[in-house]
Design brief:
It is a single chain. This protein is mainly alpha-helical. It is 70% helix and 3% strand. It has helices spanning 2-31, 42-62, 69-93, 123-137, 142-171, and strands at residues 35-37, 101-103. A two-stranded antiparallel ribbon has the order 1-2. Helix 1 packs antiparallel against helix 2 and helix 4 runs antiparallel to helix 5. It starts with a helix and ends with a helix. The model has no long low-confidence stretch (mean pLDDT 95).
């Protein structure tokens, strides 16, 4: 269980790093006249992602979930891949990446990196979904994985619609 606690702590530290990058990028965007939308769902997103981390630890500890190598190793590989995809997205978007929906008017859509594929419009959310399944299942916390997946699907429905509206509005000629 100690290794799993360290893994969850590492993911939590990664989230803190994301927030530092997001805050810096928000200042960059604001200085360029950015608009922020979707404030209403943001607290739910923060709560859900915090709940994922807490749920992983609580379920493993309280329900005495076993470590099952045949499940854990593939899930750790998925988790590593999801982190790589997330940071590829962050690097590709550069100062335009954020945890909030912030759009700088006049900038074209990013079409490089993982955003070059038309069939995968939101690769960062693929990373979020994969992580939400893989992190809990790395130590058989299947209830946390299921609850997060259902709640995250509902939240991403709102988030993606909000983001698509904001991007479309920014692309419209004024």
């Amino acid at each position: 269980m100690i290794w799993y606690g360290l893994l969850v702590a590492a993911v939590a530290a990664e989230r803190v790093a994301e927030l530092v990058v997001a805050r810096r990028n928000e200042r960059w965007s604001t200085a360029r006249g950015a608009t922020v939308t979707g404030q209403g769902h943001y607290p739910a997103m923060v709560t859900l992602h915090t709940g994922l981390l807490a749920g992983c630890l609580a379920e493993v500890w309280l329900a005495d979930r076993p470590f099952v190598p045949a499940l854990a190793w593939p899930m750790l590989a998925v988790l590593a891949a999801s982190q790589a995809l997330r940071w590829w997205c962050i690097a590709t978007l550069g100062p335009r990446w954020n945890t909030r929906v912030i759009v700088v008017p006049g900038l074209p859509l990013v079409t490089g990196g993982p955003y070059r594929w038309q069939w995968l419009r939101h690769p960062n959310y693929v990373a979020v979904v994969a992580e939400g399944v893989a992190l809990p299942l790395a130590h058989t916390a299947w209830v946390t994985a299921a609850v997060f997946t259902v709640l995250n699907a509902a939240l991403l429905t709102v988030r993606i619609r909000c983001e698509n509206r904001a991007l479309a509005a920014a692309a419209m000629p004024s």
